[in-house]
């Protein structure tokens, strides 16, 4: 007699747009949906004040047949937690972890964000929340070391959240220009990137600058492009994974000029598949530069 299926809930907080954590959750749900031993549901808990946009909705529903978008403290959220036998939770939101623990559920955490140094109530609650998990997977050694500095727990490990390994290829001789991939938000270094591009006066035919994505910084970006009179900047907007892969394969350099310590740096980890390196700071969870020619 076959064993009954387990109910697996893949859940995490989201600002309602397609980003790195959302991409990881979607890839995980797509893979798990093919496992015969699990019944899978994918749930995004939308942050207060944010709304879900089409790029996230369409991407999630294309990968998993059972997708939910809920609010904090809602009946729908508690109902999904009750339904699950196993929860794979992104980070350690207490309104998901604590009810799941009280209901006797198995809890597995993928921890995407570093521990902040401030000693306030929020951080203390999250510190307690992370300790209740049956298993913790930190997405980089940098993040892991902020939570478990000296003694690593036996039920913790480092597992980079690389969603899909690229498969496309473009001959190096056919590659052109620079590429930026990410949300257009503060501290991503987009303004500095545009100023540096203008200062170096690159040939726009041979060295175009392609900026993928979108976000609240868009008016600032467009205004700066006009102010600097840049002609070599291309902005395709939000693209799907296949299109993103084509852009990455056909570029000479991937640029990741963040002004803050990134927890993982998921996108800068991918150029190795095309035998080139990103230009990124050697801080935080970014891939460390290797001692060889590009």
From TrEMBL:
Cited Pfam families: Glycos_transf_1
Where would one find the signal peptide in this protein?
none
Could you list this entry's UniProt keywords, alphabetically sorted: Transferase
Question: Does the keyword Transmembrane helix belong to this entry?
Answer: no
Judging by the UniProt lineage, the source's domain of life is Bacteria
Q: Glycosyl transferase family domain spans which residues?
A: 173-269
Q: Name one GO molecular function term.
A: glycosyltransferase activity
Its protein name is Glycosyltransferase
The lineage is: Bacteria, Pseudomonadati, Bacteroidota, Cytophagia, Cytophagales
